Amino acid sequence: MDNQTTLVLGIFIAGILVSVLIGFNSNMIGFAVQNENVFLRNLPTSANAGEIFYVTYSPVNADAFEVQIKDSVSGECEFLYSGKNFEKIIDYSPENEGTRGTFEVQALSEGSCEFRGSYVIDGEMRNFEDKIVEIK
After folding, report:
1. Is this prediction's pTM over 0.70?
2. Please, which of 35, 43, 77, 129 could form a disulfide with 113 given CB 3.0 to 4.6 Å?
3. Beta pairing, strands 124-127 & 111-121
4. Each residue's pLDDT tens digit, 6-31
5. Nearest 5°: phi and psi at 74?
6. Strand 52-60 with 77-79, pairing
């Protein structure tokens, strides 16, 4: 083998090794994230104008913890008892792991509403995924 072939072969093998190492580290990161306390927000993709629908906040991999929720909605919806902004502190423990916080939202008129929010858990602020509900 000449020097150019050896160099190309070396780069090819190094690329394979880097890919394998990145894949291994990604799996380890994924494993760590799966064991964290995580909080989810669930809501429908659509609702009818004038009706009430529900937003549910629920824990995943929950140990005993306290979560502070801050959520807001823009557009044609309002939280039934708090308007456009919603704040709540919820305590969870192993005894009530399946518990969810379910709250009412009023669909005001046709259009859409967007939910944006965050929560603080284990002293760390995390964002919920932004969601849009179509109002028919």
Report:
1. no
2. 77
3. antiparallel
4. 654 556 565 565 454 454 443 333 33
5. -115, 165
6. unpaired
Cα distance from N-terminal residue to C-terminal residue, the chain: 70
User: Chain-centre distance of CA 97, in angstroms?
Assistant: 18
pLDDT of res. 98: 55
| Nearest one of 85, 95, 92, 80 to 117, comparing CA atoms | 85
Q: What is the mean pLDDT of residues 30-56?
A: 80
Please say whether the beta carbons of 86 and 52 come within 8 A.
no
Question: In the chain, helix, strand, coil percent, each to 5?
Answer: 25, 50, 25
What whole-number percentage of the chain has pLDDT above 90?
48
Tokens of 33: 């994230």
With b for 16 or more beta-carbon neighbours within 10 A and e for fewer, the 43-68 pattern comes to: beeebeeeeebebebbbeebeeeebe
pLDDT at residue 56 is higher than 60: yes
Q: Parallel, antiparallel, or unpaired: how do β-strands 85-92 and 111-121 relate?
A: unpaired
